[in-house]
What we know:
alpha/beta; binds magnesium ion; single chain
Amino acid sequence: MENHQTKIFDFDNLKEAAGILKEGGLVAFPTETVFGLGAIANDEVAVKKVFEVKGRPSDNPLIVHIANREMVSHYVERVNQTANDLMDRFWPGPLTIIFPAKEGMFAPSISAGRPTVSLRMPNQLETLLLIEMTGFPLVGPSANLSGKPSPTRMEHVLNDLSGAIDGVVKAASKQTHIGVESTVVIAEDDRIVVLRPGAITSQMLSQLNIPVIEMSAEEQLKSQDLLSPGVKYVHYSPKQAVYLVDAHNTLGEWQSFIRNSKINIGVLADEEWLRLLQDETAVTSTYSLGPRGDIARHTKELYAGLRYLEQSNCEIILLQGLAESDAAHAYINRSTKAANYLI
Length: 343
Ligand code: TXA
Ligand code: MG
């Protein structure tokens, strides 16, 4: 890996960050979901560097971030009514739409050989300005090493990529607002297909009065052209084994699991359960997912908590599960991906 000084930019020196991007550099940026690793989407050399620095398999395509709707017509072959309705309703926001790509517009590596391109307009002022200043769309895979949880704080980006990228843009808030990656959809003429669940839930998508179906990772893997290659890669996992504890387990069941284990345990759970479990001798580290029942907060803290406990001296991590609901769906999807075992 080349050794760069990774520079921290803020609102006042975005122009300098844009200049580095225009010269082919890599600059991470905040979004409302997680931090992205930016490079100019038309610069094949820079895009290749993004894959290299993350250790990302070259068959996994990148999301392109745009700042205005003109960029869509410029880069996309065809925009149907469904896509227009989705953009009207949910952009800027945590929704990525897969379009048929116009040939020759983007660096070829972005789409990993497929005829499509996925676009997203993030709801983050600094990043919209950064894109406007460079004058080009920016690729933005999550700014983590492949296999690690996506970064929700600037420090997470630096922990993974400091020295390997040119810079990172600091956001006004310490932690990204949503905490898990965007919802990824295909906008078909007569239905919306969800490939990756996120903060824009199926219930919200159904407000457009068109059928919404979610394709599970298993179905995507079986489908001929492997719709969203990301689903096949291990993700979000810390070095310790993660045990996902089903939402229906009682406090007594948590306690008996903890008392039967002879090793140091890290617990990632809501503040009420942490209070009840913190005196167990095997529990050596804890991270709070916020008030019990606050699903948005649990989702926002999930990756930060996994990263925090990974750095602690615990040997396994117990992660609190949530009962299935539209709002909890993205949390359940990501916590299941992070888990090695279910309790
Ligand atoms: O919230 C997010 O989406 C964040 C922020 C930074 O915007 N970005 C992000 O990117 O999560 P990444 O690269 O970590 O995840 C992109 C996902 C992958 O699972 C990839 O396979 C899928 O989107 N994807 C991208 N382009 C695609 C395409 N043309 N067809 C099918 N799947 C695609
Ligand atoms: Mg990612």
